[in-house]
Design a protein that fits this description.
The structure holds two protein chains of two kinds. By secondary structure, chain A is an all-beta fold. Chain A has strands spanning 3-7, 10-14, 19-26, 30-38, 45-50, 56-59, 62-66, 70-75, 84-92, 100-101, 105-110. In chain A, the strands form two sheets. In chain A, strands 2, 4, 5, 9, 10 and 11 form a six-stranded mixed sheet that branches. Chain B is mainly β. Chains A and B meet through β4, β5, β9 and β10 of A and β5, β9 and β10 of B.
């Protein structure tokens, strides 16, 4: 069974304190690993798509990396406005373009 | 970037009534849209894949007679929750994928969600 597991479930950082969120996946035929940000009561906001091990993508304070078993979302010098739930999702070969989501990491950045 | 809209953003209804939720792709055509459901502090669970001009494909455990999906055009999919009950109260989110040309990044865009409360 395809599984996407995120850790930690919740993370509290001080402003400027860098850290990483983990997304491990056990899927048959990965076709893409997606990262989203979700604010309370809103739909997910697209961040990155990664396709192959070794790939990296960056956007402002965020950098996503991918290995054959997991993906990391590195947050460098976070700010309070980075507080949100971060979701990762896998697209697999037998699901068309539908996504299989992890449960998310709730990030709180305090001033 | 591409925009997906949903209407209404929130709805409160009585048990036994039906509720229709619209999902529109505003600046692109989407032959396939997806409907997800999200319970509090849970992740998104795929309910069904909506295909323009054909029947929707439902995930295991999702009642197709209860959650009616119609994808009448390349920019509109609707989800109707029939005979809604309190346990159907949830956050319903649609999405659409832009399938890129060669070398471009595949992106699945999500709507803002519809909060359904059934009393």
């Amino acid at each position: 069974e395809d599984q996407v597991t995120q850790s930690p479930e919740a993370l509290r950082l001080q402003e400027g304190e860098s850290s990483s969120l983990n997304c491990s996946y056990t899927v048959s035929g990965l076709r893409g690993l997606f990262w989203y940000r979700q604010d309370p009561g809103k739909g997910p906001e697209f961040l990155f798509t990664l396709y192959s091990a070794g790939e990296e993508k960056e956007k402002e304070r965020l950098k996503a990396t991918l290995t054959k078993k997991e993906s990391f979302l590195h947050i460098t010098a976070p700010k309070p406005e980075d507080s949100a739930t971060y979701l990762c999702a896998a697209r697999v070969s037998n699901s068309g373009y539908a996504l299989n989501f992890g449960k998310g990491t709730s990030l709180l950045v305090t001033p | 970037g591409a925009v997906v809209s949903q209407h209404p953003s929130r709805v409160i209804c009585k048990s036994g009534t039906s509720v229709k939720i619209e999902c529109r792709s505003l600046d692109f055509q989407a032959t396939t849209m997806f409907w997800y459901r999200q319970f509090p502090k849970q992740s998104l669970m795929l309910m069904a894949t909506s295909n323009e001009g054909s029947k929707a494909t439902y995930e295991q455990g999702v009642e197709k007679d209860k959650f009616l999906i119609n994808h009448a055009s390349l920019t509109l999919s609707t989800l109707t929750v029939t005979s809604a009950h309190p346990e159907d109260s949830s956050f319903y989110i649609c999405s659409a994928t832009i399938i890129p040309g060669q070398g471009a990044q595949e992106t699945q865009y999500f709507g803002p969600g519809t909060r359904l409360l059934v009393l």
